Amino acid sequence: MKVLVLNCGSSSLKYQLFDMTDESVLAKGLVEKIGLEGSLLTHRPKDQEKKVINADIPSHAKAIQMVLDALTDKEHGVISSVKEIDAVGHRTIHGGDTFTESTLIDDKVIAELERLVPLAPLHNPPSILGIKACQEIMPGIPQVGVFDTAFHQTMPESSYLYGLPYEYYEKYGIRRYGFHGTSHRFVSHRVAEIIGKPMSELKIITCHLGNGSSIAAIDGGKVMDTTMGFTPLEGLIMGTRSGNVDPAIIKFIMEKEGKTIDEVDELLNKKSGFLGISGISSDLRDIEEAAQKGNHRAQLALDMFYQRVRRFIGAFAAQINGVDVIVFTAGIGENSIEMREAVCSNLTFLGLEFDSEANKVRGQEREISKPSSKVRVFVIPTNEELMIARDTAALVK
Ligand code: ADP
């Protein structure tokens, strides 16, 4: 079975074509600047040179048509006809509290996704565009929605509700949803497989640390809490997002700086976090480099990040009454040796014995705690696209 995985953003589209017989990637690529000047497609077929195609790409429908053309091209294609694609899996950011697992898409599902747009005004509309374009261009080929929020739907009310008047939850669905669910699910299942125990017997804390970062507490296979909330702004300090702040600060900044609510929203989402604290960059590599050269604010951004990662690990261990395994994943989690060392060497109270030698690894699966450690720690590269392809294949079968 061949599954095409699509991740549609507002002006971009990422794709991977999987051959599910061995879960290999036949081709992957990226369409950039959809609807803008200078749009292009970068296509990377397996074992071949990448191919860059510059073209006018005014819509997601055109982008998807170009992806299909590239996949079936005589020279750099990997399949002979679109008919070889058995199903399409869509990364969909927000499934509200309707979608608790991946779902075969029909008109009712699309209507529900449209109803959920107010919860994810930036992220859900491009997914819907992608789904509709596929229906048009590839009629009859089943499509599956895989939701970033779905894995977190097991959270108890006590975790997902805010201390706001209850009617706002009832009227508008204001609650914590959590994001990166596909990644938290992938790495937690993978670590259980490595350890050789069923999820039902494990307490796992998964740390997805990238440009956007979130941590999840998973007890017996169920997410009990996660750091992101109503939107991905809550929780940890991130590349450009503030993470948790006292909400009273918003009114204070608006008054002091004469800013509008939209400007403060932009400040919290795009100008805060590593970028805002360091004044240098949103990229952790740049921050680590500057800190090594003695830049105080870069070092401060790192220290603040480490402190918050530890804070949530500690809080979540208390919440699920223990932790057997901690997993680090995504760009920072998989690659930052310094971050893992700083976070884990200060968790000795949990009985965690860190292995600094084993920790010298980037982007590879490895256990980084000592054999005698009460809490096992792993680096597990995430693979959201593969998880989407697996869910899609399972639902279509
Ligand atoms: P996204 O949320 O956009 O998918 P990623 O998961 O790719 O983000 O993570 C991007 C982050 O990972 C950036 O802050 C980047 O600096 C960091 N990162 C990538 N490689 C390294 C590395 N070798 N050392 C430290 N940080 C890294």
Compact overview of the structure:
The chain is 37% helix and 19% strand.
Protein model, in words:
The chain has 14 helices and 14 strands. It has helices at 60-72, 107-115, 124-137, 157-160, 166-172, 181-195, 248-257, 261-270, 273-278, 284-292, 296-319, 330-335, 337-344, 384-396; strands at 2-8, 13-19, 24-32, 40-45, 51-54, 87-92, 103-104, 143-147, 203-209, 213-219, 222-226, 325-329, 366-367, 376-379. The strands form two sheets. An eight-stranded mixed β-sheet has the order 5-4-3-2-1-6-8-7, with helices on both faces. A six-stranded mixed β-sheet has the order 11-10-9-12-14-13, with helices on both faces. A hairpin with a 2-residue loop joins strand 10 (213-219) and strand 11. It is globular. The model has no long low-confidence stretch (mean pLDDT 97). Bound molecules: adenosine-5'-diphosphate. Adenosine-5'-diphosphate binds at residues 210-212, 239, 283-285, 288, 330-332, 335-336, 362.
Features:
397 residues, binds adenosine-5'-diphosphate, 2 domains, six-stranded mixed sheet, 37% helix, alpha/beta, Nucleotidyltransferase, domain 5, 14 helices
Task: Provide the CATH topology of the largest domain.
Answer: Nucleotidyltransferase, domain 5
Order of helices and strands: EEEEEHEEHHEHHHEEEHHHHHEHHEEH
Indicate the CATH architecture of the largest domain.
Answer: 2-Layer Sandwich
CATH homologous superfamily title of the largest domain: ATPase, nucleotide binding domain
Q: How many individual domains?
A: 2
Shape: globular
Oligomer: single chain
As a whole number of angstroms, the C-alpha radius of gyration is: 22 Å
Which compounds are bound in this model?
adenosine-5'-diphosphate
Percent of residues in helical segments?
Answer: 25-40%
* Count of helical regions: 14
Main sheet overview: 8 strands, mixed
Low-confidence segments:
none
CATH class of the largest domain: Alpha Beta
